[in-house]
Amino acid sequence: MVMPDNEGDCRMQKSIDVGVFIPTVSRGWFHSVNTRYLPGTYEHVLHVVRGAELWGYDFVLSPQNWRGTKGTSKYWRHSLNSMAVTGALLQATNRIKVWSTGYVTETPPAVFADTLATFDQIAPGRIGLNIVTGGKKDIFDTLGMWDDSLDHAERYEKAAEWVDVVKALWTQDVVNHDGKYFHLYDAMMDPKPSVLPTLVNAGASESGLKFAIENCDIAFIACGDDPELIQAAKDSRRLAESMSDRPTKIYALLTLIPGETSSQARELMEWIEAGVDLDGLADMESGYRANKSFDKLSSSSLSLIGGKDYRSVQRGTIVGSYDELPEMLARVVTEAELDGVMLIVPDYIEHLQSLALRTFPRLAEFGITTRLSSPKINANIRP
User: Fold this and answer.
1) I need a labelling partner for 82 at 20 to 30 A (CA). Which of 13, 92, 237, 242 fits?
2) Is pLDDT at 344 greater than 90 in this prediction?
């Protein structure tokens, strides 16, 4: 759809989804002792998600973690179980989509198929699953389940078979599956989901992207104010279009540092960076390096262990005032050809509210519309 701008020329109108990576883990995604209120508690997350629903965000996604870091920030030492939180949040909300995270390496496909079908009983049509293959050894050492026999490509091969089994259980009366990794005989599972749950994946390596395109509805790519990340997102789009006549949607994971003014936003970023937890970052990176396929992991997969300019936040973090951010976001969305974004912010109440009311509505000036373009309620729900 084409719309005129203020000068009278025409630009393409694009609609995107906007979601939130919710902080069910302490410190959120900030490797620093200097963070806003991010305790990793259900009480806080419930306030965040109810606010996100009120302000018009499309979805929320929770991570899954079994081990924090050893640094001074105690990054992710408090972690809520993604599946348990999802069930509670679905019951506590009415419209917003609530997506969970699951590792194919720790739970049989039938267990997840049944769990998500049960979620659909709570909130029909609002469920989804972020599928993770698991490339961080220390997480699985906590569970006693690290499988060093699988390399990077084989983990995605196993994940593809896992998805095949899950979808079969959701759509077939009786499932018999004798595969390389999974074996089910005369399996029956009811109830079925009312609609197939949304499947997403954040693998940006060649194997990861191919897995997402062939098996998922959405591929998450780390993106932001970084030409290499923008190009990676565009390359993902081209690959999806070449592999499927129903291209997988490309969503970006974005960290935003907003402020009333650009100087206030920079001050917040510098304050966070001043408390950077280098020991915690080193501990997290060591978990990835213990994987024999470390060299196959993509820059997107490793983006959460710190950027080039700021170590405390992911690569490509966007820093700016609420008035500057619309143009900055519009440029990233347009150049990277994104279908949606998922946000990380320092303050999940104040910042999400102000972005919904002040920043995202102005993306329409650049030909980009969102559900947040017409927020109806100006709510203050500080916990």
Assistant:
1) 237
2) yes
Mean pLDDT of 338-365: 97
User: Per-residue pLDDT averaged across 262-269, rounded?
Assistant: 98
- Domain spans, the chain: 2-373
> What does 21-46 look like in DSSP terms, one character per residue?
E---BTTTT--BS--SS----HHHHH
Better-predicted residue by pLDDT, 188 or 288: 188
Long-range contacts of 208-213 (CB under 8 A, 24+ apart): 208/133, 208/156, 208/298, 208/301, 209/236, 209/239, 209/240, 210/156, 210/239, 210/243, 211/133, 211/156, 211/159, 211/160, 212/248, 213/239, 213/240, 213/243, 213/244, 213/247, 213/248
Which tops the pLDDT comparison, 170 or 147? 170
pTM: 0.91
Q: What is the CATH number of domain 2-373?
A: 3.20.20.30
pLDDT at residue 67, rounded to an integer: 87
Residue 323: what residue type? D
